[in-house]
Amino acid sequence: MRKPVSSCFRSNALEIFARALEDCPPARLLSGRLAFEDNTIVGRTFNLRVRPGEKVRLFAQGKAARPMAGALVEILGKGNVRGAAVVPAGGGSAPSPLRTLRGKHPIPDVHSFRAAACLLRSMRAVEPGSIAVHLISGGASAMAAAPLKGLLSAPEKALLHRLLIESGLQIGDINVVRKHFSNIKGGRLAVQAPRARQITILLSDVPAGRLCSVGGGPTLPDPSTWDECMEILETSRILHELPAALRLRLSRRRWPETPKPSARLFESHVVEALADSSSLARAASTHARRLGFETHLLPGSVEETPDAFLGRLFEARSRNLRAAQRPRCWLAAGEVRVRRVGRGKGGRAQDLALAASIRLAGARGVLFLAAGSDGRDGNSPAAGALCDGTTFERAQRIGLDVERVRQDSNSYEVFRRLGDCVVTGPTENNLRDLYLLLEDPALAKRR
C-alpha cells in the first residue's frame, strides 16, 4: 500500500487554510470599518451622531458575535453602550457591559428561544431616535430562534430546523422557510423599534447578493413570500414530514407576511458587510502563492452538490493540463449541498472530501482539503478533512466502504480513523467553507 501524500504537501494545505482564517478576523475587520469621532459613529457610507447622554444599543448574534461585539465596545467605549450578545453555547462570554445570552447551533434549544425573546424585548425598549447597532453573523438563525406566534411551538420550530438542515436545499431556500416561521427573522426584529436609527453590520455566510439571508435576516427586509415558502416545503417533501397539527394550522389561515423592502423603516437603515466567502478564498489564494503555488480561483461561490462541484473543479483542472513548472493550487469557497440520510457523524466538508477521495483514487502528487471556517463540520468535532490518491485504498484496508459511509452520513469515522481530520476548534468566525486542490505535476509523473 502506498503511503499518503508527503507531509510537506499536507502542511501546505493546512497552513493555507489557517492563514486565510487569520487574514479574516471579525474583530479586525470591524475595527477597520468603523470609527467613533466627535460623538459620531463613522462608517464607509454613513455618519450617525450620538445624542448627548445617549447609550448606543448594541445587539450581536451569531458565531462571531463575541469578537464583533468586543471590537465595537472598544471603538465606542464601555460607557457609551448597552445591550446583549448571543454567543455560542460553551464559548466565551460577551464583553462588558453587554449581557451574555447563549444559543445552540445548528438546532435551536431552550436557550436559543430565551435569547430571541430577550432581543425582542430589548428592541421594543429602544426609544425613537436612539441608535441600535446589530452585529450579525452566521449561526444566528438557530442561536436566536422564535417561533411565529400562534403557528408553531418551540419543539416544532426545532424540528423544522432539523428537517431543513438535512434536506440538501440551497441556503436561500432554507432561509425563505425559516423567516416565515419565525417571530424574529426576516426583518421582524427591526420592526420592534421602527423609529430607531438602525445599523446592521454583517459577516456573511451566504452567497453574494443575499445579505438578507445572513442569520435569517432579523433586521433586513425579506423579499420572499409565503407562497414561495409553501412551494419549497412542498417540492422538498418537508411539508409532509411536519406534524399533522402544524400542517392543519398552516392551512386554516393566511399567516402574516414578513416585512418587505418597501417598508418605510428600512429607508434609512444602514447595512454594511465586512466579509464573505470570497474574502476567505482570496486570502487563501494569496498564501498559496507565497508558498510557491500557481493559483487558480474558481469563479463564483460553491452551491452545488459535492459531485457537481467536483465535476466543475476537475473540468477546470483538465482545461489547464499544460506542462507546469511548479505546484498548482485550485481554490473555491462556499458550501456544497448535502442531503443527510443517515445518522452518522460528519458534515458537508467531510462528505465532499470522501467524494473527492473516490475521484482521486490511485492518483499521485495531489491532495484535497475541505474545511469549514467556523471550525465545526456538521455534528462532528472536526472542521473538515484531507484526502489524496491513497485515501480510498487506506479506508478499504481498515474495512471501511467509502460509498456506504457516505450513505450513512458517517464521513467523520473514515477521517478520524485515518488521522486525516482538520481540527481547529471553534474559530468565532463563519465565512462558509474553503476547498483546496493541491497538485505537483512532477510528482504526478512518477511511477
Helix and strand arrangement:
Layout: H1 7-22, H2 26-31, E1 35-37, E2 40-42, E3 47-49, E4 56-61, H3 65-76, E5 81-88, E6 99-103, H4 110-124, E7 131-137, H5 140-143, H6 154-167, H7 171-180, E8 197-203, H8 226-235, H9 244-252, E9 270-275, H10 277-290, E10 294-297, H11 306-318, E11 328-334, H12 348-360, E12 366-372, E13 384-388, H13 391-397, H14 402-407, H15 411-418, E14 421-422, E15 433-439, H16 441-444
Parallel strand pairs: 4-5, 4-7, 5-6, 7-8, 8-9, 10-11
Antiparallel strand pairs: 1-2, 2-3, 11-15, 12-13, 12-15, 13-14
Structural description of this entry:
By secondary structure, the chain is of the alpha/beta class. It has two domains: 7-19 and 278-444, MOFRL domain (glycerate kinase, domain 1), CATH 3.40.1480; 32-275, Rossmann fold, CATH 3.40.50.10180. Helix content is 36%, strand content 18%. It is built from 16 helices and 15 strands. The strands form three sheets. A six-stranded parallel β-sheet has the order 6-5-4-7-8-9, sandwiched between helices. Strands 10-11-15-12-13-14 form a six-stranded mixed β-sheet, with helices on both faces. A hairpin with a 2-residue loop joins strand 1 and strand 2 (40-42). The two termini are 14 Å apart.
